[in-house]
Amino acid sequence: MRLFIGIPLATTAMQEVAALLTHLRSRVRGQLSEQLRWPAPEAWHITLQFLGSTTTEQYACVVKRLGEVRHASLPIELSGVGTFERTGVFFVGVQLSPELLTFQQVITAATRPCGFLAEDRPYRPHITLARRKRSSHSDEWRSLTSGAHPPLRSSFIADNFVLYESIPSPDGSRYTPREQFALEG
Length: 185
What we know:
This protein is an alpha+beta fold. The protein has helices at 11-27, 30-35, 56-67, 98-111, 138-142, and strands spanning 2-8, 36-37, 45-53, 74-84, 89-94, 126-132, 155-158, 160-167, 174-182. The mean pLDDT is 87.
């Protein structure tokens, strides 16, 4: 099974992101609209660590180790939209607060004994709103983030995190919560 650990969005944040997405999707035209996959709102999350292919033994280890994590609830602040050009991801940005960075490091430390390592690249928290199916012209792609769109300055307190299973399909991956873990208020 393919697993990752993430923070689900609060209902109010989901509503604000959905309103922004409705506006942005109305601006996508022509060839670009055919090249984008838009995950369903229930798939929106903030990834803490991608684990990838996981054995049954690793799964049991991860569940045990994540169950031992003790951490305070986290303030999460969303702001703006952007793209990762190389990977073809259109996203809502998440402020990298000291609390969020520390928590992400706690998570990667918890999974290390199970055989998982933290990524080499810097942590860039975000919420994926669309993925390109294939390459497109940069001007079309950049049009998603340019121009007028409703400002997004949403915040919420994350009171849990989730171990998700990623199930690939031709229409994009489906994310199924496998385990949920509470953060302390």
